[in-house]
Amino acid sequence: MSDHETRAAAMDDAAVDTFLREQGTGVLSLADGNEAYAVPVSFGYETGRALFGFYTFGEASMKQQFAEHTDRACLTVYDVDEQTDWKSVLAFGPLTELGQESWGDIGELISDNAWTPDLSGVGTRRLSITGYELEIEEVTGLQGDSA
Question: Which residue from 54, 27, 48, 16 is spatially nearest to 131, judged by alpha carbons?
Fold first, then answer.
């Protein structure tokens, strides 16, 4: 294998599950017709689902607009230490807005592995948070293979 050749190995379900539990950030890809929108997110995770809080500043939210029109979302989570030491997981499924009554049940899960940004610099803008759940119907994972 040359210095620039990268090999990959499939991750089994247990490795994917562990990786998603250890991570707290990723990129959520949404679509509205032929327009795509990808947004960095922090997430809570338990087997079969990922949970998000969408921060909204003011009245309009592109995340919420695209989420309403997305039939199947994709959460991309990755970690790279070096060329042969990396992991990447793609999780696909429908995205559902959660009501306020759900926050008590999922708040701890989000707190366990989600990262929360410091929004103190936002100032006096109106800020609201809407909860979403990605029901993971399909997941794939690859990792660097130095063998």
Answer: 54
CA distances (Å), origin 82, targets 10, 71, 76 = 18, 35, 18
**What's the rounded Cα separation, in Å, for the pair 101 and 74?**
25
Does residue 128 or residue 68 have the better pLDDT? 68
Q: How far apart are CA 61 and CA 129, in angstroms?
A: 11
Q: pLDDT digit string (tens) for 87-139? A: 999 999 999 998 877 766 666 677 667 666 555 555 555 567 788 899 999 99
Distance CA 77, CA 6 (A): 19
**How many whole angstroms from its chain centre is CA 85?**
21
Identity of residue 7: R
pTM, whole model, 2 decimals?
Answer: 0.84
What domains are there in the chain, each with its CATH number? Answer: 8-144 (2.30.110.10)
